[in-house]
């Protein structure tokens, strides 16, 4: 496979350095809007839909990167767009299920939802799995960044008489340091605004590259007619080759990936939580999937399509055996002038950094919410003021960002031996998302789903997934839809179907046997030594898990199929023991633990969010000037007439923002309607609200009732 | 002409199996009351959801036909 080095000129490098400096300064400017961890992580829940929709482009495009889609575009054509255009199936669940729940329950992380919906132990396991998922995702981002930068660099350099080779891991470490510095001081508002700028630049440079490529080939007709029919089809062949087939990618990306992306990706979820209301979040999500993702699919894949056409027209210019992960850089260098190439490369790497820094920010949020705070509570740290706590947490969040960056770099080692980034990402999604996907999904939409079922599906699901990964020819093969098993990377994509199936099977089986579990526990509790019996059963389940894992590593089942089924049987016995232990130890009330936490009680969630009865009368927005008021009263006061226009009552929630729409809600606050006064067109706010909204004294504000 | 396994079979599978997931989602959000069609705004969103599904069906069908016959 042909690999390239030293691509680009000094002009390109100059453009790249300037671009990065501008982006970092731009991001740092918005760091001043962080007044607390709430602002650092969620941007203060204030932005309008279009700002979030465009800022998501850089995150989405970065994670589903130029490198991997150009590689598949080069190898297989327009079907590289598949994964960008298969997310709509789960959008009803997201827009009217998960999105209102995460906003109205005011949860700050997914594991926190698990504690409210199930139990602290479910939160603990979810935190572990989610941290693995997020850090792995960061690792994939770093791997892609390294692969993008490597062709631009020389093979080695000399310093003080010593020659140093430039390696993939070395490049990744340098990139990680730059990313870490930026995210540590920026926070979520900085990320949103940097991504907004980069979203526009990415779309522009992606289409610029496509235009330059097609022009280089001699126009659209030439480009279209050069490509073989197979390259022009939008969906891949149903089940071949094993490295890129429709059905495997449907289950890996269209199902596990889509649910993972919409329901588990804290980076993306935090963006939606940064919108000013649920309806704005819905608009941002729908607009993104309907319009921005198809455009992004063209932006990220077109270098591969142009590369394929160039390799057919002039195989000396683009050899057909060019390393697929390098095709983007190779094509950009051929069709763009010096300087323009630098600009395209800078926008690509900056977009990838956006993805990585969003993920680092999100993982730090999980750390603060699900490790730092519970730990402080557990060790009963001396109570200090909210201001001091916030300051300490902000510092801890910054330290966590650095540590997470380092762990992300280390996780690259798990993925760097895959032939392409695409396959590494596919394997990652198929393996890490199913237990959490099943748990979150059933938690939101199935009231009967119990803590015993969720914990059993975490533990048992992982055990069955490990057995499946070890013996794919026996266990995953029945799900393969005719895909040939690649011995070095067996069933990279379709294993998602097996993994979803086993986790789902455990979840459903344990939920439907809840009555039996409760009866068994009642019978046990009648015995005098029930505590000892339960401790013994719990210990037995731990031993069984260890036996299954060590049995696999010792090669049980390597030569006889009976051994495999014995491991599966042992796993199911363990699953039932886990379920009994959870039923015994965890206090769970179906009504309390599901109220406002599932799709079946969204209105209740809304009432809990407001803290009172809902006022859903439709009102109008009003334009007002603000005046300062003394005291620490947190409500804001409008005139009687203005409140009537908004159809608002005392105690309702209100959103107040700078009247300039193009700011997208950057200068805004949420508050509560206080007692009215008689000065029409005037709103009274306090010092803290003035500071949080970063309002300007001469500017008018727009007010609207939320609920 | 590419085989059926590369043209319409993936399309049928995508919108058949994907369509089942979509339909289940629509039924659950309606039955649970999460979407309330008596509200003007929710009625708008319900139409957007159906439009999105049809939009992607047409999108893929158009590109398959373009690849094969254009």
Question: How is this structure best summarized?
Answer:
The complex is a heterodimer of chains A (707) and B (70). Chain A is 65% helix and 5% strand.
Q: What does this 3D model show about the protein?
A:
The complex is a heterodimer of chains A (707) and B (70). Helices cover 65% and strands 5% of the residues of chain A. The model of chain A has no long low-confidence stretch (mean pLDDT 85). In chain A, helix 5 packs parallel to helix 27 and helix 14 crosses helix 15. Chain A has 707 residues and is mainly α. Chain B is elongated, with a radius of gyration of 16 Å. Chain B is built from 2 helices and no strands. Chain B has 70 residues and is an all-alpha fold. In chain B, helix 1 (8-31) runs antiparallel to helix 2 (40-69). The chains are: A mainly alpha (707), B mainly alpha (70). At the A-B interface, helix 5, helix 11, helix 12 and helix 14 of A face helix 1 and helix 2 of B.
Give me some keywords for this one.
heterodimer, A: 707 residues, mainly alpha, 6-stranded mixed sheet, two-stranded antiparallel sheet, 29 helices, globular, B: 70 residues, 77% helix, 0% strand, elongated
Mean pLDDT of chain B: 95
The strands making up the biggest β-sheet of chain A line up spatially as: 4-6-5-8-3-7
Multimer state: heterodimer
Helical content of chain A stands at: 55-70%
Q: Work out the helix count of chain A.
A: 29
Question: Which bin fits the share of residues in helices of chain B?
Answer: over 70%
Q: N-to-C terminal Cα separation of chain B, in Å?
A: 12 Å
Structural class of chain B: mainly alpha
Poorly predicted runs of chain A are none
Question: What general form of chain A does the structure show?
Answer: globular
Strand residues, percent of chain A: 5-15%
Radius of gyration of chain B: 16 Å
State the major sheet of chain A: 6 strands, mixed
Specify the number of helices of chain B: 2
Q: Summarize the largest interface: chains and residue counts.
A: A-B, 43 and 41 residues
Q: Which consecutive residue ranges of chain B, at least 5 long each, have pLDDT under 50?
A: none
């Amino acid at each position: 496979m042909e690999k390239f080095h030293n691509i680009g000129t000094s002009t390109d490098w100059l453009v790249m350095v300037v671009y990065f400096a501008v982006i970092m300064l731009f991001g740092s400017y918005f760091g001043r809007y962080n007044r607390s961890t709430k602002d650092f992580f969620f941007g203060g829940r204030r932005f309008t839909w279009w700002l979030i929709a465009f800022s998501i482009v850089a995150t989405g495009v970065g994670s589903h990167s130029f490198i991997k889609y150009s590689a598949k575009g080069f190898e297989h054509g327009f079907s590289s767009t598949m994964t960008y255009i298969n997310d709509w199936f789960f959008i009803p669940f997201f827009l009217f299920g998960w999105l209102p729940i995460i906003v109205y329950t005011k949860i700050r992380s997914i594991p926190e939802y698990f504690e409210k919906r199930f139990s602290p132990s479910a939160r603990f396991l979810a935190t572990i799995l989610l941290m693995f998922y997020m850090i792995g995702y960061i690792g994939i981002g770093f791997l892609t960044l390294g692969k993008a930068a490597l062709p631009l660099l020389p093979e080695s350099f000399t310093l003080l008489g010593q020659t140093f080779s430039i390696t993939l891991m070395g490049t990744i470490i340098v990139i990680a340091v730059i990313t870490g510095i930026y995210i540590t001081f920026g926070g979520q508002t900085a990320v949103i605004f940097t991504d907004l700028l980069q979203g526009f630049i990415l779309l522009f440079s992606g289409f610029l590259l496509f235009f330059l490529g097609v022009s280089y080939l001699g126009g659209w007709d030439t480009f279209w007619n050069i490509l073989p029919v197979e390259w022009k089809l939008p969906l891949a062949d149903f089940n071949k080759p094993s490295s890129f087939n429709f059905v495997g990618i449907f289950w890996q990306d269209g199902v596990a990936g889509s649910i993972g992306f919409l329901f588990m990706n804290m980076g993306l979820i935090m963006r939606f939580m940064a919108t000013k209301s649920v309806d704005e979040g819905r608009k941002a999500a729908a607009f993104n999937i309907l319009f921005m993702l198809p455009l992004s699919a063209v932006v990220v894949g077109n270098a591969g399509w142009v590369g394929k056409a160039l390799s057919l027209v002039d195989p000396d210019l683009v050899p057909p055996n060019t390393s697929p992960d390098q095709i983007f850089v190779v094509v950009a260098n051929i069709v763009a002038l010096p300087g323009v190439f630098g600009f395209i490369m800078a926008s690509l790497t900056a977009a990838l950094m956006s993805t990585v820094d969003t993920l680092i920010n999100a993982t730090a949020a999980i750390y603060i919410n699900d490790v730092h705070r519970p730990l402080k509570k557990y060790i009963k740290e001396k109570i200090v003021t909210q201001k001091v706590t916030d300051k300490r947490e902000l510092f801890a969040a910054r330290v966590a960002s650095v540590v997470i960056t380092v762990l992300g770099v280390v996780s690259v080692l798990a993925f760097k031996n895959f032939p392409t980034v695409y396959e590494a990402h596919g394997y990652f999604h198929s393996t890490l998302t199913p237990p959490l996907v099943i748990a979150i999904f059933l938690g939101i939409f199935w009231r009967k789903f119990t803590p015993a079922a969720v914990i059993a599906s975490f533990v048992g699901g992982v055990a069955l997934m490990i057995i499946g990964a070890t013996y794919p020819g026996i266990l995953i093969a029945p799900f393969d839809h005719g895909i040939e098993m690649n011995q070095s990377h067996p069933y990279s994509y379709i294993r998602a179907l097996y993994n979803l199936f086993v986790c789902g099977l455990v979840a459903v089986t344990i939920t439907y046997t809840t009555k039996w579990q409760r009866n068994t526990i009642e019978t046990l509790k009648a015995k005098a030594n029930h505590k000892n019996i339960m401790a013994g059963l719990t210990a037995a389940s731990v031993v069984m898990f260890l036996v299954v894992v060590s049995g696999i590593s010792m090669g049980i089942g390597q030569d006889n199929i009976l051994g495999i089924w014995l491991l599966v049987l042992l796993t199911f016995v363990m699953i039932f023991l886990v379920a009994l232990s959870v039923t015994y130890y965890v206090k769970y009330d179906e009504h309390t633990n599901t109220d406002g936490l599932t799709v079946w009680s969204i209105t209740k969630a809304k009432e809990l969010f407001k803290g009172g009865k809902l006022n859903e009368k439709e009102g109008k927005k009003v334009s007002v000037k603000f005046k300062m008021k003394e005291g620490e009263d947190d409500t804001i006061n409008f005139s009687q007439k203005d409140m009537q226009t908004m159809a608002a009552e005392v105690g309702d929630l209100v959103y107040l923002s700078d009247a300039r729409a193009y700011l997208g809600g950057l200068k805004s606050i949420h508050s509560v309607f206080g007692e009215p006064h008689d000065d029409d067109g005037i709103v009274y706010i306090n010092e803290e609200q003035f500071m949080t909204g970063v309002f300007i004294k001469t500017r008018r504000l727009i007010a609207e009732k939320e609920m | 002409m590419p085989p059926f396994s590369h043209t319409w079979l993936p399309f049928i599978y995508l919108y058949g199996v994907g369509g089942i997931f979509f339909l289940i989602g629509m039924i659950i959000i309606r039955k649970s009351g999460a979407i309330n069609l008596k509200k003007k705004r929710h009625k708008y969103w319900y139409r957007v959801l159906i439009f999105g599904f049809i939009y992607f069906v047409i999108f893929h069908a158009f590109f398959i036909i373009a690849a094969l016959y254009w």
